[in-house]
């Protein structure tokens, strides 16, 4: 027993806390199965590694600011049959990140744009890639404050650092000239350096109105779409799925029929 306690203390001194906690159980298991010393050691160290990986994922999850956790397995592709499921699963393989490409999800509210963005982000976090999630309103509000306080360069680095920056809800609120210019600066700074995922309820033809400047909107889209995958989602809202089934609610015709130019696929 003294030797056992000494071994546990030495593991803790080395920072192998999970291995120290699992020592008794692993020794008992090794005795039952008559494991070799090497097999016992590998199993003990594997316990420590798995726990460290779990903690690292949790830390990256918190730093990502994801609004919730959603996976691709939770996405109902049968409810949105117009989506190319194969393309989505290819995006979840994250090869687009290595090529510094962007992903744009377009469609009316509630069709799953943010869910898909979050699901891809969770795959990236699981593979150790830094991710940051922010709505466009929060983004430009934060950058505006930094600009007014003469610390824009320092704050901009927060949005340049992650391998994947997710900008949600592009188009829900129009941008004033300063906000549009700050967004343009960010897109330029990340262009061909790291990936962005954007969700928007506006077709590209409406971005000029969104940004209050057609020329600036064209410049933003030119950079976003140069190396990109555009996914259009035309369908009804998940949030109202049950009410649509029962006939309590029918989607407004303008929402169902709205066009989001740019076919699903890659550019």
Automatic annotation (TrEMBL):
AAA+ ATPase domain boundaries: 99-231
Pfam families: IstB_IS21
Keywords from the UniProt entry: ATP-binding, Nucleotide-binding
The keyword ATP-binding is assigned to this record: yes
Family: Belongs to the IS21/IS1162 putative ATP-binding protein family.
NCBIfam families xref list: IS21_help_AAA
Identification of the protein by name: IS21-like element helper ATPase IstB
Species this chain originates from: Marinicrinis lubricantis
